[in-house]
Amino acid sequence: MMRKVKPYLTTRKLHPENQESPIHFLRSLSTPANYFYRRNHFSYPELSQSSLWIQIGGLVSSPTFLHFDDLLAMPAKSLVVPLECAGNKRAHFSPKVHGEQWEEGAISQGKWTGVPLRYILDRAGVLQNAKEVVFEGADFGKKEDVDKVIPFKRSLPLEKAMHPDTLIAYKYNDQPLSFKHGYPFRLIVPNWYAMASVKWLRKIKVIPGAFEGPFQTNDYVFYPRKKDDIGKKPVTLLNVNSAIQQPLDYSILDTGTYKIKGIAWTGEGNITSIQLSFDNGETWVNANAEQNADSPYSWVNWSYDWKADKKGEYTIQSKATDSAGRTQPLKAYWNRKGYGYNAVSKIHVKIE
Fold first, then answer.
1. Are residues 332 and 209 part of one domain?
2. What number is the average pLDDT over the span 181-193?
3. Are residue 165 and residue 200 in the same domain, yes or no?
4. Are residues 132 and 250 in the same domain?
5. Are residues 32 and 175 in the same domain?
6. What are the residues whose beta carbons fall under 8 Å from the beta carbon of 3, sequence distance 6 or more?
7. 205 and 276 share a domain?
8. pTM listed for this prediction
């Protein structure tokens, strides 16, 4: 009797743990928790009873602590949201850049349930001169370019923090968050790269100006030049992007009809088309997209029936376009930290 083979995560680093989702073998709208990619800057935190509390302070009229049970009693909201590491596909940059050499699997998606951050900030009473909201996780460590132990901290502009779909989540796919993905609380920021969705959330602070922590002003910044910081800009919205899930790169296939499958996603509007090319971009055909009307943030599954009746080697390319008019470029926007790779996706196959 043949044993059923299951996919598994691809390890990029053990300490701290960074692992890719087996994205090429997953088709459902929700990634199972055990297949969700893992991105860490530090070792996993040690949690205690105090981890069940969130502190809300800074420029608010009523600073407070909220317990896990307090959040459970508040109005809840559920959203299907993909989280993509800003370094996803970094391995494809040319010239190469330092950092985790993610391929296509630093993205996963599922149903997040929690309390809109806006509800909590409104209860606390945000003061008039507030500009940003800072989020601190329980994970900490020593950063190479900072000569001290620091926690992971990020901020959002007040407008984004007050968006009704920015959540403090405590469930994933209707189950409590797993420890490795932020239990008991994590921030979920739709449409932004996942560095904004702070895990193991323990402190929220409203401030009057721009936060300047190292994960805000040094990391997660586009630096378009090798030697200086001219033209730098923050990493925020997801780029329009796609991935070919099947067939796998460098597959050897017989002649016949094959279903090309993949996903496409964006941080602005929604995906309006996915096109494929089998002749190095000379001509393009439209793939069939499975729109998710009830899940406006979710990725789009797409497919195309390809009649491979001629032997030879082929490069299959996919490009997505969104309702904001953005299309995947032929060449990615190179930046020295390797963020936001979204060039036209491609695989190579041989028909024998």
1. no
2. 98
3. yes
4. no
5. yes
6. none
7. no
8. 0.96
Average pLDDT over residues 308-332: 97
Do 297 and 166 lie in a common domain? Answer: no
Same domain, 198 and 246: no
Number of domains in the chain: 2
- Identify the domain containing residue 77 by its residue range: 10-219
